[in-house]
Specification:
Layout: E1 2-3, H1 11-14, E2 20-23, E3 27-32, H2 43-49, E4 53-58, H3 75-88, E5 94-99, H4 101-112, E6 117-123, H5 136-148, H6 159-168, H7 172-175, E7 182-187, H8 192-204, E8 208-213, H9 220-223, H10 225-242
Parallel strand pairs: 3-4, 3-5, 5-6, 6-7, 7-8
Antiparallel strand pairs: 1-2, 2-4
């Protein structure tokens, strides 16, 4: 992949620009990673899809090679950062793929910029229940997810900071504003609430569908890339023809 050259960005915007790796030259395809991870988690997918699409893989603020930026205090701030990055790249329309907590960022971006996001994919999205109504078990799962999904590129913030972001991620109200065709994917080894909410999210958007990857769970991106591609590729091609 090729890193976005920050020297090409006006100085006033350079300091707040997300690190981004790009590859390919087709229709834009943006990847948004989960909290406590980095864009590197998408390498198995992005490397395969770069033969057909222009893949755009940023690190969210406070994560990976964007760790020079302070961790965001809200999903809205993260979505705004990604929108700014697309402006800098002069990307008017794109497909968006979000994973785990990155699905909440992707959903906010799709709701806020409907003319820009022409297709949305949410992989193993976080719980959509309002934070103040989440069970203790759900909050614990969020915390453990944030703690154990961290890697060496996650940045200097701790798991508790990621947990707070996950706990505040209430994007239920945004779903009905999403007009882009939406595909929600879960693994059949994901927790039962994840499988159930994948179907609920697909019903909540105006044009949604859900799919299940056999054998997939916490390692869906790294160990089941071929199965994901088998689901993603025909859906993306269909949306590309309609875009």
């Amino acid at each position: 992949m090729t890193a976005l050259t920050l020297r090409a960005i006006p100085a006033a915007r350079r300091a707040s620009a997300l690190y981004c790796a790009t590859s390919g030259g087709g229709f834009p395809l943006l990847f948004i990673h989960g909290f406590g991870a980095s864009g590197d988690v998408f390498q198995p997918l992005a490397s395969r899809l770069a033969s057909r699409y222009q893949t755009i893989v940023p690190d969210l603020r406070g994560h990976g090679r964007s760790r020079r930026l302070p961790l965001a205090d809200s999903i809205e701030r993260m979505a705004a950062d990604v929108g700014d990055l697309l402006d800098l790249l002069r990307v008017d329309r794109t497909f968006v793929i979000g994973h785990a907590g990155g699905s909440a960022v992707a959903a906010h971006l799709a709701a806020d910029q409907p003319t820009r996001v022409c297709g949305l994919v949410l992989i193993s999205p976080p719980e959509i229940t309002s934070p103040d109504r989440r069970s203790f078990g759900a909050r614990l799962r969020d915390g453990l997810s944030a703690a154990f999904s961290r890697n060496d590129h996650a940045g200097d913030h701790d798991a508790q900071a990621c947990q707070r972001l996950l706990q505040k991620a209430d994007y239920r109200s945004r779903l009905r504003s999403i007009v882009a065709p939406t595909l929600v994917i879960a693994g059949d080894h994901d927790p039962t609430p994840t499988l159930r909410q994948a179907r609920e999210i697909a019903r909540s958007v105006s044009n949604g569908a859900s799919a299940t990857v056999r054998g997939g769970g916490a390692s869906l991106l790294s160990n089941h890339a071929d199965a994901l591609i088998a689901v993603l590729a025909p859906w993306l091609e269909q949306q590309e023809r309609a875009a």
